[in-house]
Structures are given as structure tokens and as C-alpha cells.
Write a structure and sequence with these properties.
Chain lengths: 109, 115
């Protein structure tokens, strides 16, 4: 079956670095997405990886290893506004997104 | 970036009535739009995939006669919750695919409360 695993909740300190891991199993693979979702709001796109390696975009970076079925989202210089849920989603061979349950990130001062 | 607009943001209705939610891609044409439902503290649940000019593809367990989806143009898809009941109260979110393999852009979401 198809499955996405990511931690339920993480806590980090303002100014620090946090890494949110995601493992996936899908029927075929057409890329891995990360979305940020604040409570009561729709998700917003953060990153897309389809090739192995690290993609850097400002304070956020995303890594993919296709052979391991593994991705992580790295957030640097954490700010209070980064407190949100982070959703990992893998696109299968039919271009459908398989969503993880999300990781709630709590930032403490 | 691409913009997807969803309307209304909030809707309260009486049990037994129908509610229509619109999803528009404002600055691009979307051949495929997706409708999701999200209950509190849960992940997005895909309800259906809407393709312009054809019937929507519903996920298992989603009643197609209750959740009517129309994708009449490349920029508009609508979800109608028919004969709504309190258990239909949820956060409904649409997304539109741009390009290949298709980055998804989400609408703002619509919070439905059925009394």
C-alpha cells in the first residue's frame, strides 16, 4: 500500500535549526512536496524534489533520497511565525498526492 | 505566483440544505482541480479529482451524489454539498494543478458549519 510517515509533533527554539523527516512508500514516484499549514488556513507550497539531493530556498531546504524513500525539510534561523504544521506529500505514478498526517512544529522563545 | 481563490470562506447552513463552494484559478488554466476535506487536527483527505469537461473521480467512501463536483471551465470548479448534515461540517479546500508534474496551488479553504 501507499504510506507516508512523519513525526506528529516537534519542538524547537527560536533561532535554532530543525529537521523534519518523512519516509514514503508509493506506487511509482513523481516527486515529493512539502507544504506549510497554519491552523485554520489552507496549506502553502514550500518545496518540490524529484531528483536526489538538497534544494535550498532561503531559510528552508529540502532533501530527497529516492533509493531510501526518504526526505527531510530543514528550517534554519527559526522564527516564531514558523510555528505551523508541515505536510509531506509524495506524488505517485498517477500524479496523485499521497499526504502525510503532518508534523506540528512548536517554536519556543 | 499562481493564485487560487475559493469562495465562500465561511458558511453556516441549516441541516438539509445545499451549499455550493467555488474554486477559481485566477491567473492560470487548470485542467485538474482537487477537492479535499480536513477535520480538526487531521491531514488533508482527498475527496475527488475534477477534470475539466469530464466527470469527477471520487475517492473511495466519498458519496458522489452528496458531493456534486462540476468543472465546467479551465478556471472554475464547484463543490456542492447536497442535503448537508452536521457531520458534513468541516474545512473544505480546493487545489489546482499548474504544469507537469504539476505544482499544486491551494485555495483559502471554506469552513462549513451545518446546524
Amino acid at each position: 500500500g501507499q504510506n507516508i510517515d512523519q513525526p506528529t509533533e516537534m519542538t524547537a527554539t527560536e533561532g535554532a535549526i530543525v529537521q523534519i523527516n518523512c519516509t514514503y512508500q508509493t506506487s511509482g514516484f513523481n516527486g515529493l512536496f512539502w507544504y506549510q499549514q497554519h491552523a485554520g488556513e489552507a496549506p502553502t507550497f514550500l518545496s518540490y524534489n524529484v531528483l536526489d539531493g538538497l534544494e535550498e530556498k532561503g531559510r528552508f531546504s529540502s532533501f530527497l533520497s529516492r533509493s531510501k524513500g526518504y526526505s527531510y525539510l530543514l528550517l534554519k534561523e527559526l522564527q516564531m511565525k514558523d510555528s505551523a504544521s508541515y505536510l509531506c506529500a509524495a506524488m505517485d505514478s498517477n500524479y496523485q498526492l499521497i499526504w502525510g498526517a503532518g508534523t506540528k512544529l512548536i517554536i519556543k522563545p | 505566483g499562481a493564485v487560487v481563490s475559493q469562495h465562500p470562506s465561511w458558511v453556516i447552513c441549516k441541516s438539509g440544505t445545499s451549499v455550493k463552494i467555488e474554486c477559481r484559478s485566477l491567473d492560470f488554466q487548470a485542467t485538474t482541480m482537487f477537492w479535499y476535506r480536513q477535520f480538526p487536527k487531521q491531514s488533508l483527505m482527498l475527496m475527488a479529482t475534477s477534470n475539466e469537461g469530464s466527470k469527477a473521480t471520487y475517492e473511495q467512501g466519498v458519496e458522489k451524489d452528496k458531493f456534486l463536483i462540476n468543472h465546467a471551465s479551465l478556471t472554475l470548479s464547484t463543490l456542492t454539498v447536497t442535503s448537508a448534515h452536521p457531520e458534513d461540517s468541516s474545512f473544505y479546500i480546493c487545489s489546482a494543478r499548474l504544469g507537469d508534474p504539476g505544482e499544486l496551488f491551494f485555495g483559502e479553504g471554506s469552513r462549513l458549519t451545518v446546524l
